[in-house]
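Could you help me review a protein record that somebody else here produced? What it holds is a sequence and that sequence's fold in token form. I need someone to confirm that the token line plausibly describes how this chain folds. Take the sequence as given and treat only the tokens as open to question. This is what I was given:
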Amino acid sequence: MSSTLIRRAALPAVAAALVLPLAACGGSKSSSSSSASGSPSGSAASGKKVTLTVLAAASLDNVFKAEATAYEKAHPGTTVRFSFAGSQDLAAQVKQGVPADVLVTADTKTMDGLKSETGSPTIIAKNRLTIATAPGNPKKITGLDDLSKSSLKVVLAAPQVPVGNYGDKVLKAQHVTVHPVSQEASVTAVLSKVELGEADAGIVYVTDAEGAKGKVGTVTIPDSQNAIASYPAATLDDSKDKTDASAFVSFLASSQGQSILRSYGFQQP
């Protein structure tokens, strides 16, 4: 047999050999597409251990620990850890490139200022303000007007802190001028001053006062004078586990996540 015939006879075999790896690649692609659209995806679903770092507003401290417990139970292999601080401090951490996966602030303004670093935010909860006092309200505070009294030691959050900004707007709307003895970096710091007796009163979120029941008293701010705080949650663009980060945000917005938020006094978005 001539060399030309040998080469022609070998062509079908070579072609068959090439088809097999191509078919294998096609099968792999099909399987991947099916996984993306059907069964759960993400690092934890594949058996890999995942640690999600969530930067969250200080007022979410207690409820988010409960959210983490529920989420970890539903997502074996995933650990959720938090860094709680005032929203303005969280924004600074994001801009400085602190490694994290999810951001949750106590206002939309702070989140909007980070559009280039986050995914699209989802409002997961709302909150309102209240006046925190010493237990039993010994100074007989009845409303916002009383906070202007020079005989009272009032502590507020700084204006750049969401609760401080909300409080400032509420006081201005009622034409109440307050001279605080201090301006704190977070709502938990305001509450702590009242708890320790270093202040007679402070403006905090309803949920924080509820969490400190027995340690502080409260004076309701009527809805007509109050402010509504919105809490947006978003994945961070620098997250190394974006699929899992997105799953956590979705969990917060789910019926289970919302039920936990409401049990801690937060309102539906």
User: Anything to note?
Assistant: The CA atoms of residues 191 and 204 lie 7 Å apart. The chain has nine helices and nine strands. The longest helix spans residues 3-37. The first strand starts at residue 50 and ends at 57.
